[in-house]
Amino acid sequence: MKNILTIAGSDSCGGAGIQADLKTMSALGVYGMSVITAITAQNSMGVHAVQEVSEEMIRQQLEAIFDDIEVDAIKIGMLSSSTVIKTILSTLKKYSCKNIVIDTVMLSKNRYKLLQDEGMEALKKLIALGTVVTPNIPEAEVLANMKIKNENDMIEAGKKIQSLGAKNILIKGGHREDDCTDVLLLESGEVLKFPEVRISTKHTHGTGCTLSSAIASFIGKGYSVEESVKFSKEYITEAIRNSFPLGKGVGPLGHLIDLYKKANIEY
């Protein structure tokens, strides 16, 4: 079994963050491990508060894993400050970590700021370590300092983000109204497009976390970047198709739909 590490924040209602990552990894047959960077108070209505884990505790979590366990791939999610990012960056370099997937989390669905402004420059330095970086369109606009209106803009923004040092960039098209095609810019210079039919549901809590942790899982299992993105999109499409209501707001994905079916659960 391959060992995949997620470095991200905790979601108290279980739909995103560390919890979504571990469910995804379990569903895809890898062993999930976690380093928690922040604790959030959130539910289906949105994020209400964030408390950052100390720099020293984050470093000790990382070292405890790297000193003992071989890590086949890493997914990085919510990082709230430059201090946290610099700690993670230096530790990853110290252990010569590989197969790093970076989900550039900046805002929650209810527009709660998850990355402070002062952390942006540090995030750009972390991106240089990325095997795959997975911004959505609003995040890509910030990183590339440009507006994105169409696929050509997505490609141009991807190249700008790639110039920060990341090998492969996947710009997610879910925020576009007319088309939700994802665009993958490979290290080789090739540009691949992944067209998708939009699924009519509001229950999409944790989609970015789920996709990036799925990509890390497949890369850790030895698949190419192109294959990993393809298989991850197939997984998340099925998870969105089987998403369900929880609470009063946006519900989670059906991460473990096969297990739910075996347990004869109806929802």
What can you tell me about this protein's structure?
Helix content is 38%, strand content 19%. The chain is an alpha/beta fold and 267 residues long. It is built from nine helices and nine strands.
Order of helices and strands: EHEEHEHEHEHHEEEHHH
| Rg of Cα set | 17 Å
3D shape:
globular
Structural class: alpha/beta
Average of pLDDT: 92
Treating each run of at least 4 consecutive H or I residues as one helix, how many helices?
Answer: 9
Spatial ordering of strands, largest sheet = 3-2-1-4-5-6-7-8-9
Q: What summary fits the major beta sheet?
A: 9 strands, mixed
- Measured distance between first and last alpha carbons: 31 Å
Helix content range of the residues, please?
25-40%
Beta-strand residue percentage: 15-25%
Kindly summarize this structure in a few lines.
The protein has 9 helices and 9 strands. It is an alpha/beta fold and 267 residues long. Helix 4 links the parallel strand 5 (100-102) and strand 6 (132-133).
Q: Helices, strands, pairings?
A:
Elements: E1 3-11, H1 17-27, E2 31-43, E3 46-52, H2 55-66, E4 73-76, H3 82-94, E5 100-102, H4 120-127, E6 132-133, H5 137-144, H6 151-162, E7 168-171, E8 182-185, E9 191-194, H7 207-220, H8 225-241, H9 257-262
Parallel strand pairs: 1-2, 1-4, 4-5, 5-6, 6-7
Antiparallel strand pairs: 2-3, 7-8, 8-9
